Amino acid sequence: MKNKICILLTALLILCTASSGCGNQNKTETSVVSVIDTVSVIDEKQSSESERSTEQSSETKSSTKQSSETKSGTQQSSETKSSTEQSSETEGSTEQSHTESSAVVPEAKSIALTKHEITLTPGQQTEINYLLSPDDAPRKGVTYYISDTSVFTISPYGVITANSPGSAELSAKTDSGLSDVCKITVIPSPEPSLTSTEESPSPSSKLTNAIVDPYTAYNSERVYRDIDLLCSRYPDILAKYDTGKSTKGKPITYVTLGKGSKKGCIVAGIHSREHITISFTMKCIEEFAQAYTDGSMYGSYDVRSLLNEYTLYIIPMCNPDGTDISTAGESPLVAVNGFDADNYKLNANGVNLNLNFPYNWETHLANSGYIPGDEQYHGSSVASEKETQAIMKLCSENEFLWLLDMHILGGGIFWRDEYNGEIPDDYKFTSSISDVCGYQIFGISTNISKYSGGLENWFRFAYNRPALCIEMIPISQAYFTDTYIGYNSYFEQAVDWQRTKYTYLEAMSCMK
Ligand SMILES: [Zn+2]
What we know:
This protein is an alpha/beta fold. It has helices spanning 2-13, 50-58, 66-83, 87-100, 203-208, 220-233, 276-294, 303-309, 320-328, 361-366, 386-397, 426-437, 448-451, 455-463, 491-495, 497-500, 503-509; strands spanning 39-43, 110-113, 117-120, 125-127, 130-133, 142-146, 152-154, 159-162, 166-173, 179-186, 238-245, 251-258, 262-268, 297-298, 301-302, 310-315, 402-408, 412-414, 440-441, 467-472. Helix 12 (426-437) links the parallel strand 18 and strand 19. It binds zinc ion (ZN). The site of zinc ion has 6 residues, from loops.
């Protein structure tokens, strides 16, 4: 286990080594030990099976990242050095944590559900979670018990669905005997009003019919389907277009969300194994479209007002071929040097798209020697890839005030590089998003041979406007799973949803 932790920790430090960094960590928690958030759902009538199912579910995930780290560990350490000022500390602390990580396994002292009383109508859904104290206690072995499943059921990820009127209890119990209880009451659905002819579903009833499921990794087919469904449901505010086709001929679809004249661009999923950024972005699209339609506040943001002023151009999945290799197991067209599908980062030509943009591309070439399938391979020529061309086309057709390029892992923002220097408003833009969403601000990237060819670096260069590489998933959440697909199971914790869901809204709000 200790070896696995060490390997995993190393792997997490090299997840995405493109351009301005994408994978650079400033901080490594030495007290964090491998955690798999194992939740079983048990009807108390069947409680005799509970222990067994808890055990089983904790064993289902297997480590698939291990093949990568020995290969690129050397490259990463030099890249880490060049990417941020704090990186020397990172390397030191990484080594330390290898020896210290097995020393202390904090035991949970208490468990608390995030809600203690819930009232629903049949068919309605809501989410619940549990918190352990101390918060770095292993989340393994927590089981949900339901006193009467005819009243409600719960998914392993905490989505409660009301079934029929009545009252029942949900208990969350740890292996060590800690527990907390939430009372759930299901009341009959209100009779439809005879006087109202307008269909005006409440926000809560819309949640029941959520289109986007972030708890399962997206393949391209589901992305296309859900974009169609979202556009059908929110035709007033959402529309879809294509900006090109992928290497294998799949549409590179973008949506416009909003009615305003100001424009911002969001690109997700450029690195295929970082597909949770697709799930995140799709969920944002749905929730913002809903808030706009309802006229409701989203946290402290007036979404209708923002989207009357702005239009977001969003490419939720800019690398559909890679996404399908990574999440649907499609065979890559090129050798992938021993990387398994879950670990696949490139497009179907084996190119790291975030090294393929026309931004000092030759600089990177001069220092390389990589071949298709290498994570550092930047393509046969500058902007050689159809996916690169599609993103560039969208940027050339619109005057974007800013661009966000979504990645994992690190919970931080790459925002300025030495070659481009200061971009007007780049720090204001970065710090506003950091303050609201909790991302740390990484140091200025200094080694051009590492960040040349990057999307955000190219955008800054071409348009002299802010472009950020946002690395979602704080390191503290990295241990929830051994696989990239596994992050989806713990979506809200993994991406720190309750804070990061404001990312795109804050980007509009702070750049008016
Ligand atoms: Zn990345």
